[in-house]
Design brief:
It is a single chain. By secondary structure, this protein is α+β, with helices and mostly antiparallel strands. It folds into 2 domains: 284 residues, no CATH class; 31 residues, no CATH class. The chain has 7 helices and 17 strands. α3 packs across α4. The longest helix is centred in the middle third of the chain and has 18 residues. The radius of gyration is 23 Å and the shape is globular. The protein starts with 15 loop residues before the first strand and ends in a 6-residue tail after the last strand.
């Protein structure tokens, strides 16, 4: 088990940050036919378009006045006009392809900024011990699973007739090796793949592991093909509009567009999918994205509560500052947060 060189208690550096070590690009969305995916994702992009629609009243009533038939009838008569962004496959094309590149970077646990030399030395000892023992094998396998199951496709994966994921190892600008996975044969709620794909998964995990350990330069090109049907809507990332004060005349849904016109998926959203590997939180029932408090915003819940001592800061400070070594599962979790990156310094106040 990974150990620290000393049990003398130290204080966390007030300036402490880490770069991310899984570095995906934005996902570019193109269209192809399913029977042509062997030729790749092609170059025909999906254009973001606007659509104006007339909606009906559907919100929940706020008071007794709003359930009065006279009020309801009057509200129904008012046009609920909306302008939204949409993206869809054209007629004659039945498959969306999402392509991105993924750099796997070395030196996990090495701070990009740290203002305390003694803390940095202790941290280096902890990370070196973990690396010597595990070689990031478990983390690499879990990241590979989320490529193989097509989680990065998000809503585009739901209801698809077929989903294939292609992963290429890029060396000197060219594909040196290629793996293929039947994504729908792999369940999102499990950190494993179908038995027939285990050999390919092991190879993919080896590539990722080589990047995390720093043994090799690793760049992957990943393409997910989802067969949705001709003309079907596809789902790029949706933009967060921060200036929400004046909505008059504005679109009610704005989709992410690369170069202001091409449908795409945010690199942050792809990164979230890849790091959805945490099954080590208390009473775990499914993988969640690696976060310091196990936060799942769509559920409004934090699965790693500081009261239980299972959040990142409790485990990290105990391991580095006092030499209290967590169980191996929680060591994986702490290191996966460092792979995620972030700012984790402790205030002097």
């Amino acid at each position: 088990m990974a150990k620290t060189p000393s049990n003398n208690k130290i204080k966390t550096a007030s300036v402490l940050s880490f770069n991310r070590h899984l570095d995906p690009s934005d996902g570019r969305m193109t269209v192809v036919n399913w029977n042509e995916i062997e030729n790749g994702a092609g170059t025909t992009v999906i254009q973001i378009q606007e659509k104006s629609v007339r909606g009906t009243i559907s919100n929940r009533p706020k008071n007794t006045k709003e359930i009065d038939p006279v009020y309801i009838n009057a509200a129904v008569e008012k046009a609920n006009l909306q302008t939204v962004d949409i993206a869809a496959l054209p007629q004659g094309k039945d498959t969306v392809a999402v392509t991105f590149t993924l750099r796997v970077l070395p030196n996990v646990g090495q701070p990009s900024a740290c203002n305390d030399e003694s803390f940095a030395e202790r941290l280096n000892a902890v990370v070196s011990g973990y690396k010597a023992e595990s070689q990031f094998k478990e983390l690499a396998k879990r990241y590979a699973v989320n490529l193989a199951n097509g989680r990065f496709l998000w809503r585009n994966r739901i209801g698809a007739e077929n989903v294939i994921v292609s992963v290429e190892r890029i060396v000197d600008g060219k594909a040196s090796a290629k793996l293929s996975f039947d994504a729908l044969a792999n369940r999102l709620y499990e950190v494993k793949v179908d038995s027939e794909q285990e050999q390919s998964l092991a190879q993919l995990a080896t590539w990722i592991q080589a990047g995390l350990t720093g043994n090799e330069h690793v760049l992957l090109r990943v393409t997910g093909f989802a067969r949705l049907g001709e003309g079907q809507e596809v789902y790029p990332s949706q933009e967060l509009i921060l200036d929400a004060g004046n909505t008059k005349g504005k679109k009610s849904k704005t989709l992410y567009a690369i170069n202001n016109k091409e449908a795409g998926i945010h690199s942050q959203k792809i990164g979230n999918a890849l790091r959805t590997i945490d099954t080590w939180y208390p009473d775990a029932t499914k993988p969640i994205a690696v976060e310091p408090y196990g936060s799942v915003t769509s559920e409004g819940k934090a699965y790693r509560q500081p009261k239980e001592g299972q959040d990142f800061y409790s485990l990290f400070d105990g391991w580095v500052n006092t030499g209290r070594v967590p169980e191996i599962e929680q060591q994986h979790y702490v290191m996966s947060v460092l792979v995620r990156g972030g700012v984790f310094g402790e205030s002097d106040k």
